[in-house]
Amino acid sequence: MAFGSASTTDEVLEGIDLTGKTAVVTGASVGLGLETARALAAHGAEVAMTVRDPSKGGAAREAVGAHAELVTLDLASLDGVRAGAAAVLERWPAVDLLVNNAGVMATPEGRTADGFELQLGTNHLGHFLFTALLAPAFRDGTRIVNVSSRGHLGSGMDWDDPHYRTREYNKWQAYGQSKTANILFTRGLAQRGFTAYAVHPGMIVTDLYRHLPDEERTALENRPAASDGTATKTVAQGAATIVWAATADGIPSGSYLADCQVAEAAPHATGDDDVARLWAWSEEQVGQTFTP
Question: Which pLDDT score is estimated for 226?
Answer without folding.
Answer: 42
